[in-house]
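As noted in the main text, all predictions were made from sequence alone. Below is one such record, for ACT domain-containing protein.
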Amino acid sequence: MFLRRLFNTGRKKLIVTGAGKDRIGIVKDITGIIFDEDGNISDSRMTKLENNFALMVLVDIPEKNYASFQDKIKRSRELFAIHLDATDLHPTPAKTIEIEDYKVFIELVGDDQPGIVYALTQHLAGQGVNIDKIDTFSYSAPMGGCTLFKVKSKVTVNKIIDFEKFKHSLKSLESSLVAEINVYREGEASDSSSSDS
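Prediction:
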């Protein structure tokens, strides 16, 4: 399996991050900055955190519009009451890369308690596993009235790591974290009986 990465000349890639008080129209205002500068959103994460709104967006902008785009980003607090930053992304040279790794999805559900995310990410780092994405949220249990904590993560695992051993190492955390952990490879069905929240 091969992945082709093409570097598009004449445009610059940036990661835009930001946070501010949540309000109606905030996404419109942020994406409007990008649209006005002939920019394109290729990937994004936007979420409401209590009464705040946070985002991380991968965009590409024509080089000729780079200065004006950065100026609007710097003035975002004044214009839209949200603080934004834009960081240049290092370009990837055009070449074909053979992918030797595989993707794994991890779902964890347990009692809401401090240290769950740290314990999980510490374990993954110790295995030499790279985290591509991690989402966390709390919700009330259907029965019992307690608060549950859920982690959904996508990670990249080197092919030299046996999947079954990797899965077993994660399952061994269940007792210490008082949680249920479901692990499955990309393309395989999850055996979790819980529905996505």
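The beta strands are 2-5, 11-21, 40-49, 52-62, 82-88, 95-98, 101-111, 130-140, 147-158, 179-185. The CA atoms of residues 47 and 153 lie 16 Å apart. These features were considered when defining construct boundaries for the mutagenesis experiments described in Section 2.9.
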